[in-house]
Amino acid sequence: MKFGQWLGFICLIMALYVLWQIRQLLLLIFMAIVFTVALNRCVKGLQRLGIKRGLAILITLLTSLAIVILFFIIIVPPFIEQFQKLIELLPQAWDLVRNNSIQWRQQFQFDWLPSLPNLTDLFQQLQPLGTFVFSNFFTFFSNSVAAILQLLFVLVLAMMMLANPQPYRQAFLKLFPNFYRRRAEEILTLSEAGLGNWLLGIAISSTMVGLFSGFGLWLLQINLVLVHAILAGLLNFIPNIGPTASVIFPILIAVIDAPWKIVAILILYFIIQNVESYWLTPTVMAKQVSLLPAITLIAQIFFAQMFGILGLLLALPLTVVVKTWLDELLFKDILDKWDHGHNKS
């Protein structure tokens, strides 16, 4: 390799190292882009109705703010009240689960299975964690403040990009060679469309899952329906892991109320998840970038391992964007043309 090539290679390694060191900042910027894409779809919809962009942005932001305020006024107070009741009922549910497990072990002679600890033993096991949390209270408090500041940073950055997205778009395109910038802009447009379709699809899907869960649990007369429905809808944003976690709390409540309802809840959530996976998602996400279930799970594990909880939350939008760039840049622009040229020769 020549000196210039070695210098370019060293610069590439240094750039990758710097990017890795600021990976959390890059994730926050990507989250701001996700918010910007979501809001920009609403703005473009208003522009198609003949409204100027400045007024469309103002209407979108005011409508979003009104929705958030109404959510905190109407939904949050009863949710907090029911969630507190849920926390109060969890110890009783745990005792019932433990007693039933002991009876089943004795009845079916499953002595080889480990028994569940009682609450006293469980609290003793968790005591070191409590001591650690108390001793590091300032650290946890600082992290909470940092999380709030990061959220404010994301929201402010999203509004800045929404107000005038073109300069940011052009700055990103300058990272590509001059001959490829037009093609990169096309891929960027496809990524934006794929991300927007995913956002719309997952919002509709999660809302329907929450409504179906709430209605089904209401028919089964499960207590604290609002909490279970909202958790089911929110956790649906995390495929594979979220739906599994959302069924735990209604099952614990059913243990206290009527154990036979456990089977009914499992059947209900099984039906909801199959309707969501095989009918609702393909219908509302018909234009979305198709993601295989195995790819989705691998992406969640990969991004969670690499970037922590924020990587897990952003795993699917990151996968949508990465898949679009791989399809267009790697496969269509490099591998497909390379194969065509090889066959031609």
Automatic annotation (TrEMBL):
Cell compartments where the protein resides: Membrane
Chief location of this protein within or outside the cell: membrane
Transmembrane segments: 25-43, 55-80, 137-163, 184-209, 215-235, 247-272, 292-322
Biological process according to GO: transmembrane transport
Pfam (any one): AI-2E_transport
Keywords, comma-separated and alphabetical: Membrane, Transmembrane, Transmembrane helix
Membrane topology (UniProt): Multi-pass membrane protein
Chain coiled-coil ranges: none
GO annotation, cellular component aspect: membrane
Similarity annotation: Belongs to the autoinducer-2 exporter (AI-2E) (TC 2.A.86) family.
UniProt-recorded name of the protein: Permease
